[in-house]
Amino acid sequence: MKYFSLMSCLLVLLLFGCNEVNPKDEKEVSNFVEQWNEAHTQLKSPYLQRDYMDVVTYYGKERTKTQVQQDKNLLFQQFPDYTQRILDDQLIITEEAGNYLVTFTKRVNYNGIEADYPSFLSVMNKNGDFKILREGVAENAKDLDVPIFPSARENNVILANKRKLYGDFNGDGLSDFATVISPEISAVTTTEDQSSDLVECKGGCNSVIIFSNKDLEPINITGAYQSQIENLRDLNNDGADEIGFWDIKPTTKSLYIFNATTGALLTEPVVINTAVHKNLRLIDVFKKTGPYKITVTSSAQVNGKWILKSEVIVLD
Predict the structure, then answer these.
(1) Which domain covers residue 109, as residue numbers?
(2) 63 and 145 both lie in a single domain
(3) How many CB atoms lie within 10 A of CB 98?
(4) Whether pTM exceeds 0.70
(5) Cross-strand pairs, 197
(6) Which of 13, 115, 175, 180 is the one with CA 20 to 30 A from 143?
(7) Same domain (yes/no): 144, 54
(8) Is 84 in contact with 108 (CB distance < 8 Å)?
């Protein structure tokens, strides 16, 4: 009987490999998946790209690893408090045509919501390093239309349909482009004085500036749902163009002046009261007036009256 069982296993091994994983390989794959899971935090997520093959199947669609990284960035821009963990630390690892299929239950938390999803990764060993070939959730999983999955961001990520702003935003002498991913407005309520509206957005009223150059991190602007971007040229003589972001509200326009390379604000937002100071253009609000100097003009209330006030700012 033992001989029959041994021969049976050998036969299965020859035909199908028994789907058993070498204990050493299993431990290494498990460590890789655990590290990948732990990288799903706002601080660590920018480094997830290195875990993927150049082209992967990402939630059922073919994507480059750069596109995967962009989607991860958008996830944490929209939900900075997002976390995930492998439920009960249980991983099931099987061999799949020379690669490893890892299945587990992913418990996610975001915006006060907690949910479990049966998930999987397909992993291969390439030159001694593990890389992800496929990532997704089980087809029969429930609530796949929630905003944490790529399908919810798909329309926003199609940059071809967005207005592109061209410039050299990283100082390498080559042309890049930037575009804005705006939130989806779910409700607009007009206030009693009709001077402003209360706007609600799915996932929060935040906008994200995305760059075509993958080395430039996205810039998140909280509370912005309607916008316009401007190329402000090189203001601080670092060789890279700065970027201006207009946050447009019913009675105000605020100009954010960003160092595109670092994502840092070069000055406080320049606020214009458009109910009083109408039809102002960029040149009326912002000028480069010398080396490392800009002059900004904003609305200010003095003795009960709104006036335009100019200020010279020295840049670092």
Answers:
(1) 21-153
(2) yes
(3) 8
(4) no
(5) 190
(6) 180
(7) yes
(8) yes
Same domain, 138 and 198: no
Residue 143: partners with Cβ closer than 8 Å, 6 or more residues away: 115
Residue whose C-alpha is closest to residue 203's, from 248, 147, 150, 155: 147
Do 142 and 247 share a domain, yes or no?
no
> d(Cα 99, Cα 140) in Å, to the nearest integer?
24
Amino acid at 83: T
Dihedral of alpha carbons 101, 105, 107, 108, sign:
positive
Taken in order 82, 148, 50, 219, the sign of the CA dihedral is negative
Q: What is the CA radius of gyration of the chain?
A: 26
End-to-end CA gap in the chain: 82
Measured CA to CA, the distance from residue 100 to residue 123 in angstroms comes to 5
Q: Strands 52-58, 129-137: parallel, antiparallel or unpaired by DSSP?
A: parallel
* CATH label of the domain that carries residue 62: 3.10.450.50
Please state, in angstroms and rounded to a whole number, the distance separating the CA atoms of residues 78 and 156. 12
Q: How many domains does the chain have?
A: 2
* Torsion (CA) 302, 308, 311, 316 in degrees, nearest 10: 120
In tens, the pLDDT along 146-195 reads: 889 988 776 555 544 567 899 999 999 988 899 998 888 877 776 555 55
Do residue 173 and residue 285 come from a single domain? yes
